[in-house]
Structure prediction request, 112 residues.
Amino acid sequence: MFSSAVYAQDGAGLVPSGGLIDFLPIILIVVVFWFLILRPQNKKMKEHREMVANVARGDTVVTAGGMIGKVTKVKDGGEVEVEIAKDVRVRVVASTLTDIRSKNQPVKTESK
Prediction:
């Protein structure tokens, strides 16, 4: 009485499939992941490497543990000697430096 014949339709022409279109969402996810996560992280790592490479005697630095001190000696092998109090010096791995608060500026001579 209320039923009618239902025929299945072939949807082959409605949605394009195959090749690049199937991989487009995955490619889009990878591109978004690259620009939002990997690229900024690589940039920050490069800046940190440059900062550690340019640390010099007399710089005031902050270590990863939060200690603030003045660099007294830059050693080979990635170590830095930091004076954290008068006559108290500690050896610190250079890669654990998180910030350089003030760079050692050369003394300016006044010319008259």
In short: The mean pLDDT is 83. Residues 15-53 form one domain. The chain has two domains: 15-53, 56-112. Residues 20-53 form the longest helix (34 residues).
